[in-house]
Amino acid sequence: MIVSKFPNARPRVRRKRLTAGRIALTAVAVLSLVVGPAIAEVRPSAAEAADFGRNPRDWALSNGDLANTRATTRTPINSHNVKDLKVKWRLPLEGKPTFAGHMASNPIVVGDTVYLITLDSAVSAVDKETGKLRWKHEFNSPSVGPNGVAYANGLLFGTTFTGAFALDPKTGRTVWSRELIAAGQGGIDVAPQVYNGTVVVSTVPSTFGRYVPGAMGTVYALDAATGAPKWDFNTVKDGDLWGHPEINNGGGLWYAPAVDSHGRIFLSVGNPAPMPGTPEYPNGSSRPGPNLYTNCLVVLDSSTGKVLWYQETAPHDLRDYDLQDSPIITTAKVGGVRTEIVLVAGKMGKAFAYRADDGKPLWTLSVGTHLNDEGPLPNEPVTVLPGVLGGVETPMALADGRLFVPWVDQPSTLSATGGLGYPDVAKGRGGLTAADATTGKVLWQRNLPQMALGAATVANDVVFTATYDGQIFGFRTSTGELLWKATAQAGINAFPAVSGNLLLVGAGAPVLSGTAVPELIAYSL
Q1: ∠ CA 207-117-485 to the nearest 5 degrees?
Q2: Residue 133 domain flag
């Protein structure tokens, strides 16, 4: 076992910013039936290709692939037979829950084994056919999530709240571990991304909802075989925390970045703080300016960590509007030429499309309800939508030129000096919007009875999502027709994987009333 420390270095690199003009928002009510682009090919390394190729039904990364599409055609599940999905097995989720519950991540599948991690950082290997536990490795490191595991190069990767690790997937034995942040200085709650023998994870500048003054989210690239550092990137530009490090903090990643075949890695960065402000510094005046690179899509050279370009989506954020969802790589016709583009969304309740090579904006789409969501806040409290637990909270999916965006309507009451508290989740609602990936035009939309916190996941022509009250929905990708519905015995703020004829759903969140029965559920044809 290799155990080592990695100092929180803050390198200064040359950065190039492209002109970012403001784009008009696309109205949610507009409908279009434009045929969309094909999904871009993202090539893994030779070693990764050998691993992934062992079983074409594998779901080996948190979002399924390096492009983060969360879509597969390597399954018999489709619109004709999805109605036949029934429970095949249930695995109880044990351990001590955090306030987010027992599980808030995506299980993965490699060959005949399902791997998962709970919110106390316990990693389990489960027989895919029977649900029988094969081994369990307990780290006893509570996390708020979304965490997760990933498989590549014959190893299983994950994070605790303070570090990263690699396990032997057959036995659960630790191969290496590396501490990345000191206790109390922030944490780690992101699923790793793995490419070309490199594992990428990120710290965040908060500990269980408490922002740590002076903390900055840092992205680390580690050697997959040893955990040794390759590069790191401070998500606060120049590392100066905008003038008041004794008060401010910001940055970090929630979800796994995307990696394309041109050697670029796409990071979606979280918010600055304090928010909305303090009595001494209302409306974030302790951190003047746009607060780069928070709420930015930042694109790096994946071998060096140097900035190629970035775009900011919510400058000088006052409302907790992270741009946190995993970017998705695809291709589209731009000016009549097939071009790689990147799609991303966040808690501001908007999805964005950019050219992947230079960051040129292509379109913006608003989803859900928007109220008092821009500009300075007044001294007296007002209702804000999306609220601090609203917008696009969990990952989108992409298939056949359609982008599937799960969203949350959850209001907050904010003023120039405060109000950033945990809302009443019982009042939350949500929905799923399908949009044309080339234009951002809405194809269809379905409103949901509770917060859509179960991401979007596509199996052929069925898109699945889930709500916080434990309901799971399967819609026809072309029209939004409801094809299948099930109800778990706990709330859902985790995301499914699809492998073979199985749909795997983690239901580990608290329930709105009664007693939750947290479990990983395998639905089968």
Answers
A1: 105
A2: yes
Q: What is the length of the chain? A: 525
Instruction: Count up the domains in the chain and report the number.
Output: 1
- Give the range of the structural domain holding residue 40, as residue numbers without chain letter: 17-374+387-524
Averaged over 397-413, what is the pLDDT?
Answer: 97
Q: Is 0.70 surpassed by the pTM of this model?
A: yes
How far from the centroid of its chain's Cα atoms is residue 419's Cα? 25
When pLDDT is averaged across residues 222-249 and rounded to a whole number, the result is: 96
Give strand pairing partners of 98. Answer: 101
440 phi-psi bin (left φ>0, alpha ψ -120 to 50, beta other)? left
Reported confidence tier of residue 68, pLDDT bands at 50, 70, 90: very high
Whether residue 451 lies inside any domain: the answer is: yes
pLDDT at 316 over 50: yes
**Longest Cα–Cα distance in the chain:** 60
pLDDT digits (tens, 9 = 90+) for 2-34: 333 333 333 333 333 333 332 232 232 322 222
167, two tokens: 């396990």
**Can you give the three-state secondary structure of 200-254, one letter per residue?**
EEECECEECCEECCCCECEEEEEECCCCCEEEEEECCHHHCHHHCCCCCEECCCC
Strand 113-117 and strand 108-110: the pairing is antiparallel
pLDDT more than 70, % of the chain = 89
DSSP, residue by residue, 63-110: TSSTT---EESSSS--TTTGGG-EEEEEEE--S--BTTBS--S--EEE
Query: Which residue stretches of 190-285 are H helix?
Result: none
Q: Give me the CATH number covering residue 31.
A: 2.140.10.10
Cα(46)–Cα(40) distance, integer angstroms = 18
For residue 52, the SS3 value is helix
